């Protein structure tokens, strides 16, 4: 099984800050990684697919990078509506989600 | 616009079988991968498994012995059965469509682009 480890598990930042979340896979998954945003009480929504591709309609302040085992998700300028929990998910072998990163406004 | 809607009992007794259905509207179920994901209260997302439109399935190894996902193309629905449930199976259950996109050959991208709103299932006597 492929394990996905996100860090940090929670994060507090100010509006306008640059925010970075990392995701590490337990083995090489190439670019087979997606990022999702989940707001409280809502279903997840895909933001980034295949490590760095922005889903249609998603604001350009969101971005992703990385390959192999180490991946990064970035919000270039945090907005109040970005308060959510963010998950990485691999699809190299079956599907596995990271444990999530809860993002709060400072 | 594609929409997914989960339905099924909100309360299941321990040792019994949890059964949920996801109804797809706005598109045919006869393509894509169709997934189930769950989220225990206050916890993260757990992938349960998927079924391809041709009937092929794959399951989370930790649940494989208890899970069956099936497809009913005549009703545009797919279903989840999880047997021998315990309190640990209490969760919000989501159904989702997984899209396959061709990249640079032979690479394909897969991501869950349409989700249902989720349904809460509690396992309790």
Which short descriptors sum up this protein?
A: 106 residues; seven-stranded mixed sheet; four-stranded antiparallel sheet; 11 strands; B: 125 residues; 55% strand
Instruction: Name the quaternary structure.
Output: heterodimer
General shape of chain B = globular
Mean pLDDT of chain A: 97
- Number of helical stretches of at least 4 residues of chain B: 0
Low-confidence stretches of chain B: none
Structural class of chain A: mainly beta
Using the alpha-carbon principal axes, give the shape of chain A.
Answer: globular
Based on helices, strands and strand pairing, what is the structural class of chain B? mainly beta
Terminal CA distance of chain B reads 39 Å
Q: Radius of gyration of chain A in whole Å, from Cα?
A: 13 Å
Low-confidence spans of chain A: none
% residues in beta strands of chain B: over 45%
Description:
- The complex is a heterodimer of chains A (106) and B (125).
- In chain A, strands 2, 4, 5, 6, 9, 10 and 11 form a seven-stranded mixed beta sheet that branches. Chain A has a four-stranded antiparallel beta sheet with strand order 1-3-8-7, with no helix packed on it.
- Chain A is mainly β and 106 residues long.
- The termini of chain A are far apart.
- Chain A is built from no helices and eleven strands.
- Chain A is globular.
- The mean pLDDT of chain A is 97.
- Helix content of chain A is 0%, strand content 51%.
- Chain B is mainly beta.
- In chain B, 0% of the residues lie in helices and 55% in strands.
- In chain B, strands 2, 4, 5, 6, 9, 10 and 11 form a seven-stranded mixed beta sheet that branches.
- In chain B, strand 4 and strand 5 form a beta hairpin.
- The model of chain B has no long low-confidence stretch (mean pLDDT 96).
- The chains are: A mainly beta (106), B mainly beta (125).
- The interface between A and B is medium-sized, with 26 and 24 residues.
């Amino acid at each position: 099984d492929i394990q996905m480890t996100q860090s940090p598990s929670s994060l507090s930042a100010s509006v306008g800050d640059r925010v970075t979340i990392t995701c590490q896979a337990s083995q090489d998954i190439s670019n087979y990684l997606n990022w999702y945003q989940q707001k409280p009480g809502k279903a997840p929504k895909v933001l980034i697919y295949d490590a760095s591709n922005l889903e249609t309609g998603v604001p350009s302040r969101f971005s992703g990078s990385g390959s192999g085992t180490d991946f990064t998700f970035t919000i270039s300028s945090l907005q109040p509506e970005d308060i959510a929990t963010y998950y990485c998910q691999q699809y190299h072998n079956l599907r596995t989600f990271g444990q999530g990163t809860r993002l709060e406004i400072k | 616009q594609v929409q997914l809607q989960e339905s099924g009992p909100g309360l299941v007794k321990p040792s019994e079988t949890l059964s949920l259905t996801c109804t797809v509207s706005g598109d045919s179920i006869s393509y894509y991968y169709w997934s189930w994901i769950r989220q225990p209260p206050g916890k993260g997302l757990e992938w349960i498994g998927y079924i391809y439109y041709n009937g092929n399935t794959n399951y989370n190894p930790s649940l494989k012995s208890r899970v069956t996902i099936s497809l009913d193309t005549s009703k545009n629905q797919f279903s989840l059965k999880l047997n021998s449930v315990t309190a640990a199976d209490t969760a919000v259950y989501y159904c989702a469509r997984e899209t396959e996109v061709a990249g640079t050959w032979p690479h394909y991208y897969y991501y869950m682009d349409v989700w249902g709103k989720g349904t809460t299932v509690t396992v309790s006597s």
